[in-house]
TrEMBL record:
Keywords: Cell projection, Cilium biogenesis/degradation, Cytoplasm, Cytoskeleton. It comes from the Eukaryota. This is LisH domain-containing protein ARMC9. Residues 474-566 form the LisH domain. The lineage of its organism: Eukaryota, Metazoa, Ecdysozoa, Arthropoda, Chelicerata. SUPFAM superfamilies: ARM repeat. Residues 58-188 form the ARMC9 CTLH-like domain. Gene3D superfamilies: Leucine-rich Repeat Variant. It is found in: Cytoplasm, Cytoskeleton, Cilium basal body; Cytoplasm, Cytoskeleton, Microtubule organizing center, Centrosome, Centriole.
Amino acid sequence: MSGSLSSVEGELNAIVKEYLELSGLEDSVRCFEEECQRLGKPIQDSAGTFQKDGRVRKIQNELFQHFDEGRRVEFFSAWDSYISPEVREGDSYCQKLEFQLHVHFAVFPIRKSNKDVIEKSDEAMFHFRYYLDTQGSCLSQIPEFLTYYALPFVSTPQSHQSFKHLFEESWVPELRNRLETFLWEAIKETTQNSPQPRLVQLYQCNDLALSDARSEAQSAERRLQDSERRCMVQARHLVKLQDDCEKLMKVTAELITALEAAVKGDMIDLDKVLSTCCQNFPDLFKFHHKNRTSSDRDPTVSSGSYTNSASRAQLMKDFLQQHSMELSDSTHVCLDFSKMKTDLVVQDARSKTLLLQALRWRLTKTQPGEERDAVLSSYINNDLLGCEQPSQYRQRVLHMMRSPNKNLHQALLRFLNAFASFSSARTYLCKCPQLLAILQDNLINNRVKDSISQDMTLGIMQKLSLRHSLQTTMIAGGVVEWLVNTLGKATETLSDYGLEYGVALLMNLCLRTAGKKRCIDMAQRILQLLVDLLKLQNSEILPYVNGTLYSLLSVPEIKNKAQEMKKVVVIS
């Protein structure tokens, strides 16, 4: 007998014995064993065990390599291939482990000191948030996972009390050990549950390696089918986009015709233009077409003065030119800020309103990037709002925030809301504490008389609440209590814009310990408010409601009150 055959003879005999046993040929098994013993031929006790164990080890090594290197896409692609859907959907231990694995990949970039890896932290948190809103939503009722639903909303989780344990040296090895144990049992059980003897597998597949290749091919085929389904969805989406594009071309043609008429000085029937737009995009234009009143028009234009948007655009351009030091062929205009600041003090209310709108348009209508950064820097470097140091000019600007002229008041708030959208602008505004004091006083003491001003005020305060010092001022000033009272009747007093920014502001304040303490005395009211907001099924406010809820439930007193209320909150 050749040496190559003798090295595998025991395994081959074991394969034959296994086939005879599974076929119920007991006499043949007995005769086979006796003859092998008489001839001195070995029968290996665990034929196929080493090959199966080797396959499990191969799968483990592949997953661990992705795990250790933070390759989320590759890991979960292999995870879906090797772990059956029945186990992932029916085994609670597997679901909890998968949740922890998503947490691991979400914080992985933050653990690394490499700059290139850290830049991917926002993307990792985005994918984790998507997982929470889809597959992970079914675990929102499990208390041990509630805290993690606030993780995407915390800027520095490594220093947050609820998430510091994720960055301890012991957390990753413990998760790795749980993953290793689960993979060994799950994959090995799958391979051992095969009803066919090894001899049949060899007949059908020639070798176990080929069987693995066939299994991988089947998995690839399933992924291909999923890709084809997604492709069909995207194809339908593309058809819809093409249809919308055709409608948009019709609207564009109508608007260009109206613009050409305006340039020639002809009167424009704005209702007719809106009617045409409404026919092509009814969901987008029907509200403006049916509810167009004097308050919906641009507050900088008095009734009857200007009949079309072309005139208003030209008016804004004229105002910028009046305050320009020089004009060039480029869109960038160097402004005379000294003259502009003088006009913001001495001109009449209508001129101030027009100037503020022109400044806002100059900031919002420029291309994002260097051009917009240049405009923003020019406003800050020239101290447009007088925030750098106390002065008479600052007081005059702040006085406009309580102007009895509604159009001027709204124009300033609109400008501040757009201006506060930028980080450097928020740093600049923080130098003027009186600004927040006036905004807060107007809001809490009901000095805001119209919904637009209230929306803009909430938008400004929400953006300023990203600053630690201003958060402290808002909490001490009773903004949390005002929000709870106002959001409780949101459908009556707030627009969709105001509701979104109001809930976002409440979440920002409740992430602070001082904000949580403010909520203890009104725990039942605020918990009931959050439950009611969840019932609105508003996808825009849902993340902020979730963030507020999970933050407050970390306070024992509020958590006990929630248990007393016996409410089950399901976050979809």
